[in-house]
Amino acid sequence: MTDLSFRGTGAMRLAGFTSPVVGWTLFAVACYLALPLARTGRAFLPLDYGLHPVVLGPALHWLVVVAAVAVTLVYGRPASSGPQVRRRADRALLAILVGVAGLGISLFAEAAPFGFGALGAFLGLAIAAGAALSEGNRVRGDAFTGAGIVLCLTFVTLFITYPLLMVLRSAVWVDGTLTLAQFAKTFSSPLFLFVSNRFTDVDEARQVALWAAAGTAAGTAFGLWQTRTTALPRRLVLVALWLVGGAIGGWAVGIMLWGRGALPSTLLVAVIVAPSATLLGFALALLGQRTNSRVVRGCLGVASVLPFITPPFVIGFSMIFLLGRRGLITYDILGISPFANPLYGIVGVSLSQILGLAPVAYLIMRGSLNSLNPALEEAATTLGASRWRVFRDVTWPLVRPGIAASLLLASIESISDFGTPLVLGGDRNFLATEVFLALTGRYSQSEASVYGVVLLLLVLLVFLASRWMLGVRGFATVTGKPASGAFLPLPRGLEWGLLALAGLWLAFILSLYGVIFYGSVVELWGINNTLTLRHYVEFRNTAWPVVWYTIQLSVASAIPAMMLGGLIAYLVTRHRFWGRSYLEMGSLLSFATPGTVMGLAYILAFNDGTLLMTSTSAIIVLALVFRNMPVAIRASMSGLAQIDRSLEEASATLKAGSGTTMVRVLAPLLIYPLLAGLIFAFVSAMTAVSQIIFLVSAGRNVATVLLLSRVERGDLGVAAAMASVLIVLLLALIVVLLIASRYLDARNRGKGLSI
CB-based contacts of 1: which residues, under 8 Å, 6+ apart? Predict the structure, then answer.
């Protein structure tokens, strides 16, 4: 807010000129006048001063200068009261909006790719607009808060909402016409759904119809039983809804069992993977919480970290070594013929995804189990309930939120998985891979967009199903009072069964990772097992530059993802403003959107015109920033919920602005949440495939895409060497960052800053 403590007209004018509104407007004009407004091609460098505003001549973009002059004149007049300050800020905001409109219309009318001059002018004017909103009391907060709100809303709209809208537009706007013809064409394609196969002895369509009829009957019967005490008119409506739901469910089951194509394959794998991974994760979490063995808990903890530092298709890749046509188990031990191997298809994709998602489910379920109050189980035992009865009637119902969260995450990850079906899919089609193949193989943006819309709808249905699963029941067990007692031990039979299951799972996981390292030091897996370092030499000569480039991109994306995520979390939790719900939900949308859909969205949004950025490093960095930012948001929001607002109030009392408070008060207290967001963003960027496979170009390849291409063409030795280096590198990085975080936390505790 402008300082009005000066006396005299000259002092008040000086106070006006020191406003951030004036400063950032002048910054925008300086960028506009010093740098080229546009660029001739995709590259940002070198600068082409033939596209300087002065060279381009009079046009609407000159309104930037007009806006700066208007703001300067407005703030040159004294404002001695609150209403005058607000009117001055509103007039400045109007001038700034005119400048933004003139610059935007000029660029989009010419379809000229934006240059550094336009970028600096837009950023300066956006920050000035936020400061004007703050000074005009349109936003409750200082200039930092207002500028942060404007910038975050702009970023979320431009890099999340707008690209997704372009996917929807591409699906329904074909050859300049609004039509649903592409949906009809795609839905009727055998690649999407294929039921009646004339080369089989089974009538698949009849089987699907039988399942639909069975679902209809089951839904009707259940609806009649559920509404047996309901009034007749309402009962008829509810029974009709159950009938329709049963028919759809039965048809879906029939399609999954008897159909072929991308939709049945994706649904069948998701239905297999989500419950299996969740139950396996729940079993491991239950064992980790209730066992007395520190060794078991330590092994489970280490194994739960491995999927996060592994490219998403590497488990499927290592399964080829163990269970493939020349696999150690299938060929060398069991003697299964290479032509009768069942790994490629639904079996292999499902098994790989279960193994990859079980540790994630374990972490979710471990948190749910640890939040339970042991006194509830003790009370049930005191009333005479057996341990099996306590588990069934007390423990299991209270972990339903964790079950729902795990099912939701596992379903979304399974539906949107791209790398595993590409490696192990065999002759089956999957929705995520069809998005890629439709764009790069069949060169149809509209068909790829239709597949993307279907993926988005499936994710939305999974989310609604998880909400329905929870219902309206209460699950609160954390009351703020200290919990007493210890958790009941597991029944002896259950504990031994879980120990056996955990042992098998750990042995298989270690075998999968072991064969990756072993496969990297043999000549040719399954054919020539002579030890060699040839693959590492080839990796150093051909693949290391790509890995180094990937590290640079990951660092360049992880730091902004952490900072922007922390800023959005601060704005959403500490301030109330118009667009707050949109900012929160929109910023999380990119994480819930399948990666292939988000990559397609960036191609459609930034491949031509003013926003041209494809075939540059910038588009890859931006895609990674807004893909990984939601984790930093959620982690920071959880940390902020534990920090008392009185600390910020004390900082404000000492005349510190919001920016100073964030850096010097909140950031030291949020070191762990921010570090978690940073680690996740970096690791996810290093292992990303689906969201950036559309965005890589010649000279700008990334490690995981190169690794996937090596696997596809059968160069398994170098692929194993790359995977080994990535795993060791990421594991070492996590250890270093955790040690650094402990050092920073200890230093903060010494300064009295920790919670």
Answer: 134, 135, 142, 143
